[in-house]
Batch of 2 targets.
Target 1
Amino acid sequence: MKFGETFMEYLQGDQGKVSDKYSPHVEYKRLKKVLKSCRACRASALKESNSINGEEDDHETSNCQFESCQLCDQKFFSELKKEASDIAGCFSSRVRRLLQLHTAPGMQKYLVTLRQCFKNDQQAMMQECQILIEYAMMNAIAMQKILKKYDKVHCSVNGRNFKSKMRAERLEILQSPWLIELGALYLNFNESNGGKSNELFSQFSCNLSDTEPIMTLMFPDSVKLEYDLTCPICLDMVFNPYALGCGHLFCKSCACSAASVMIFQGIKAASKESKCPVCREVTFSLHYCTILFLSSFSCHFEGIYCTVASLLNCRMQH
């Protein structure tokens, strides 16, 4: 089955309910039609040019001639960028809402715990977690494939450059720290189920026993994406981590030390000139929110089982 059919089946099926009227998705079928029409125009123009100038001369310039297509650039990249922005916003808000239910503070936590005595919402939260993971993966694959088709039709690297631009603007959903938070939530669910794996848990895996702690997301086509959980400053597993606007993760103490502020003051007290210790990007001027949630899970390290509980404070761009 081709990916276009698989994607449409996903949108129309039960797992696609996250992509309803309030959740955007990649318009894969429509964008593919835009590329098909461009391919037809290209073939027509090439045929006309061949009849006038001869095949040999025109064949050498045909690749360069269609590297930049004004019609496609207007309909394609502008729309795709808007879709990527909407998808990233939808994903972050849905994950944030899910985490707030899981880690409600103070009195809210007490009320949630009291409610669970009569009704256990964990199954519904697990299902929502699975839907969000699938939502991120399917839209990421759709965007990757449509950009690859663009480059193939136009014999260019504009699609690849656009993907790099999205990553720089933090619109690529698979590079979002919210996906790492979703993985941390998976660890909580897995621990509460006694470590039993199921459909959801087969997508995420986390290896904390090696020198470099890594969280892995497995795609349906056996392609995996790895997230390093090592703090670039102390070179240890992130503890009480902060995610800056650029996406780099740090321990709270390390981030505060790099910004020359006290730990109790937090990153908010950093000066406007403070930069990310890794990429040197000024992140203070960006708009952030602080998300607090408790991640507790069991890990096997040097033959000893221990419980790790860390308060994750994620500061990231809306």
Target 2
Amino acid sequence: MPRRATLTYSSEDAPHLGGDELHVYYCRYSGKHAMTTECDLLTAPRRRADSSRVLDLEAYTTKLYMSEGGSKLIRRANGNVEKQHRLFVGKLPVAYSAEGNNRYLYVLEGALTSYAKDEQLRQDGGTPVPPCITGLEAGVTQVSLEIDDRTDRPSLIKISADYVRIGITQAISHSDANEEILEFMRSMVGVRLGQLTLVRGESTRHKLLMVTGTSPAEVFQKLEASQAGPRNSRGEGSTGPWQTMFPALEAYNARSFRSIIGLPGSCHGRPGKELLFEHCRAVP
């Protein structure tokens, strides 16, 4: 007689199965719930024709909260005509499927965001970190900046899902513009200048700031605290915690410091705030 054995498994003994993390996406412009899926759209492939994100509905469980928007004929660059079945959130198109292939859902570029605008979705009394502040490998945080130039003073204007919008006194094409951006963001985030790296963005007015040694949550908390400070007459945010000590020195790149407080030209390249405090200590 063969020997028989009975094996009993419980949920506590079962191995953890990956892929159960859900991602919630909202319409970027209305803030309404658009879909919940197991797929992270940031890692989804792009369609070459229009840069939309390709979501495989057979590979990922997906719940859509969209309405039918009818069909539309699109002529591609190669001359082929494609029939799309559009999906809307409210009156805004956010995705489509191609006729004859319902397996793939194409999410339009820039249509959805994981950043919730609804106040009721705030957790623990705080705001979730927006997508413009993301964590990369090796402890690097990336901040997407949108820059207004020729403002009265450096300022943190707005934090949105897409960008951290700041103002600088220099023209965006000026050679000292990047130096002013780094100095201002250093005062906002509270890190050393060596922890910051500025990278070109999608256009002249958009740049990527790399911050090492801090998490996205820490960067966002410091920016949010600075934005919650005193506002100017145009509703712009704080210009930095240390500037309240020296209100006359609003443009604080190194060249401005040398001209304002009479420092020699040999000080070029040293951080403006460091030069300022050294100068103040030397004054009797």
